[in-house]
Write a structure and sequence with these properties.
Shape: flat
Distance between the termini: 32 Å
Number of helices: 6
Strand order of the largest sheet: 1-2
Radius of gyration: 18 Å
Number of strands: 2
Structural class: mainly alpha
């Protein structure tokens, strides 16, 4: 049971880490840059945010008791380019993440083997969490990449800055070995 508790703590930290990376990337942009699509085959950051929030609200609302693809969700509309001011966009973003974090906080270790459904396909709770833990960072990577392309001026690195790997490793190896989640230090660094 202890491993299940550690798993739940770990995934909450990892989701927070990826949310924070996206937050920091979007914060470096001008509001109008959030709605830029480079061509007809790409989505703007605003569209990616709408999609992630829509997915989160669908997957994590009544997580244990209803199908993860909610009847009222209109996934296709998440990919329509709509002009949204930055404040509204961030409200949509936070609403999705809050839904996810509340659902995760409500889970108990003994529920991890429960079966939930997404589009009538059964998943254990662990599988459903892992599915989203793969999906969301995929889109966070898109947000970060897009933000780097759109950024005018200097980019504040969200990972180990270029040509700083040796310094980063020297700091890590100067400390005693310990068992911790990698996000503990990374979240502090991003603050």
């Amino acid at each position: 049971m202890e491993v299940n508790k550690q798993y739940l703590e770990s995934v909450q930290k990892q989701f927070l880490y990826y949310k924070t990376i996206a937050d920091k990337a979007m914060a470096q942009l001008e509001p109008e840059q959030l709605s830029v699509a480079l061509n007809d085959n790409t989505n703007s950051i605003a569209t990616i945010v709408k999609h992630l929030s829509g997915n989160m609200l669908s997957r994590w609302t009544d997580f244990l008791t209803t199908d993860g693809e909610k009847e009222g969700r209109n996934r296709d509309s998440e990919f329509e380019e709509t002009i949204i001011d930055k404040e509204t966009l961030l409200e949509i973003w936070e609403k999705g993440w809050n839904c996810l974090f509340e659902a995760l906080k409500s889970l108990t270790p003994d529920q991890l083997s429960n079966v939930i459904y997404i589009r009538n396909e059964g998943h254990t709770v662990v599988e459903a969490i892992n599915r989203q833990l793969a999906h969301y960072p995929y889109h966070v990577g898109q947000i970060v990449f897009y933000a780097k392309l759109l950024k005018k001026g200097e980019w504040n690195s969200l990972s180990i800055p270029k040509n700083k790997s040796n310094d980063y490793n020297a700091d890590k190896f100067s400390k005693d070995k310990s068992i911790r989640n990698f996000t503990d230090d990374e979240l502090k660094r991003l603050q």
